[in-house]
Amino acid sequence: INDGEGHPSSSHQALKGTSKWATSLENLLEDPEGVKRFREFLKKEFSEENVLFWLACEEFKKTQGKKQMQEKAKEIYMTFLSSKASSQVNVEGQSRLSETILETPHPLMFQKLQDQIFNLMKYDSYSRFLKSDIFLNHKKSEEQEENSPEAQTAAKRASRIYNT
């Protein structure tokens, strides 16, 4: 259902904010505000390195040029995977990469590890995040904004415009 200008009508608009985050971890990770709130939550749980590693891997996949890939791969390795890593992620031991693979990087070299971390977040932290004060308070403030008199009058103005 569209309004007169081909835009979805308000009853069929895509979910936004916390409603969208609550549908899947993928949706949460696609929204910069969602990532910010999830990081805030993970920081309190002492597991922020998981989302930071996942984000670094996503960024790494877009890296162009062998030299840049080598540098970024080494950075990811030293930050998250090395035994001396400052923000070491908890991945299965046998899937740890050796430093030698860093010489010949490819865009999906961290995929298996990234998938492990994604699943760890999806089946562990994400469900707790949806019950956390950080999420619930953000959801409440979103709902208050939507129900504010300003938002309602804007919606009424918009409906008058589209229904004339």
From TrEMBL:
Output the superkingdom of the source species: Eukaryota
Gene3D superfamilies named among the record's database cross-references: 1.10.196.10, Regulator of G-protein Signalling 4, domain 2
PROSITE patterns cross-referenced by the UniProt entry: RGS
RGS domain spans which residues? 24-135
Name the keywords, alphabetized: GTPase activation
User: Where does the secretion signal sit in this chain?
Assistant: none
Q: Name one GO molecular function term.
A: G-protein alpha-subunit binding
One Gene Ontology cellular component term attached to this UniProt record is: nucleus
Q: Where is this region: Disordered?
A: 140-164
Question: Which Pfam families did the record assign?
Answer: RGS (PF00615)
A GO BP entry: regulation of G protein-coupled receptor signaling pathway
Q: Does Transcription regulation appear among the keywords?
A: no
Could you tell me which PANTHER family the record lists for this protein?
REGULATOR OF G-PROTEIN SIGNALING LOCO
Name used for this protein in its record: RGS10 protein
